[in-house]
Amino acid sequence: MTVLAGLKLTALQKPTHVTPIQVRRNKLAKRIWEQMELAKAQQAGTTFAPTKFRSVTDAETGLRKQVETHKRVKAWWFTADNGKLAPKAAQRPWRASQEGSGNQRSQTECLEFASNWQK
Fold first, then answer.
1. Please, are residues 96 and 107 in contact by the beta-carbon 8 Å criterion?
2. Which of 5, 13, 41, 76 would give a disulfide with 48, using CB separation of 3.0 to 4.6 Å?
């Protein structure tokens, strides 16, 4: 009890600044969630169409207003010839051991990941 009496409580302000790393993590988490929901919807035979707000200028008045539209979500996978799901390849070739890229995975690790994608 003497330890608690010796503590000093102060008011702490919640930080308003979000680090760029946390912003990127949040974006990635949101997009992964969208991919999961898209996969669930395709498995159930329904559509997944999240909404977003878009600014539209009215031609008559010239005022801008927010309009809610459906966001297009493209699948990060395709169905292979054997019926299993496979990740789509990147637009440009990816180098596993590029200097200064911060990527420490070897090419064999990448190939193992790709082969174990849908097991």
1. yes
2. 41
Query: Model confidence over 4-27: pLDDT tens digits?
Result: 888 888 888 877 888 999 999 999
pTM, to two decimals: 0.56
Question: Is the pLDDT score of 101 beyond 60?
Answer: no
Residue at 3 is within a domain: no
Sign of the CA dihedral running 28, 33, 116, 76: negative
In a domain, 46, yes or no: no
The type of residue at 50 is P
Q: How many helices (H) does the chain have, and how many strands (E)?
A: 3, 4
* Domains: count for the chain: 1
Is residue 55 domain-resident?
no
Angle 49-40-94 from CA coordinates, rounded to 5°? 85
Place of tokens 């010839």: 81
Within-domain flag for 116? yes
Boundaries of domain holding 98: 76-119
Residue 118, both tokens = 């849908």
